[in-house]
Amino acid sequence: MKTLTGLAAFAALIATPALAHHPLAGAEMTTFTHGVLSGIGHPVLGFDHLFFVIAVGIVAALSGRLLVAPLAYIAGMLGGIALITNGVGLPYVEFVIAGSLILLGGLAASGRAMAAPLAMALFAGAGLFHGWAFGETVTGQEAGMGAAVLGGYLLGLVAVQYVVSVAAGWLARWGISGAADIKPRLAGAVVAGVGLTFFLEASETAIFASLGLG
């Protein structure tokens, strides 16, 4: 019970908006290096994205396509960024992102291998929404950034997420001694719990907004 309570408290902590910022804290992006740092920091400090990428690695490892499957997420993410930067909206982004954490965390917690094509389709579909959320930074706080800054941002964004997913998958594979191994399954359960926290938070925000209390 104490362990579950601790996990719940941790999930609530990381769901706070104050932690979901890039390392330059809103400072103006003016160089390629600034872009790289911002791209690296955004998914690492945005825990909804970080936990999803960790789950991608675990599920990719279970599917036997650790190095290839995460690229489907990367492609979907870049597609999502392209959508928002071209003025194309996506519905219920926060809910879909939270749902992707719950779904992928649950799959990882099951310890069962998913067919690689299905896993990659899931990664790419969820990646669209995660990428769209990243794109809000490009079109909002960092609007007007030059080509060098944007290139650095995208490079950092892609590199850090691929490295994290592969590292998480490698650790999961290293820890898997059988289908029932507790280590990667516990990690998946934590990811699903974090997703549920974000889902409840998004629901609360939507309810308050509908009541004019947001």
Write the layout of secondary structure elements.
Layout: H1 2-14, H2 32-45, H3 47-63, H4 69-85, H5 93-110, H6 116-139, H7 147-175, H8 182-210
Helix pairs in contact: 1-8, 2-7, 3-5, 3-6, 3-7, 3-8, 4-6, 4-7, 5-6, 5-8
Q: Report, as a whole number of angstroms, the end-to-end distance.
A: 34 Å
Q: Please give the share of residues in helix.
A: over 70%
Total strands = 0
Number of domains: 1
Whole-number mean pLDDT: 82
Counted by DSSP, the helix tally is: 8
Secondary structural class: mainly alpha
Q: Shape, please?
A: globular
Order of helices and strands: HHHHHHHH
Q: Tell me about the biggest sheet?
A: none
Q: Could you name the ranges where pLDDT drops below 50 across 5 or more consecutive residues?
A: 1-21
**Percent of residues in β-strands:** under 5%
Overall radius of gyration: 17 Å
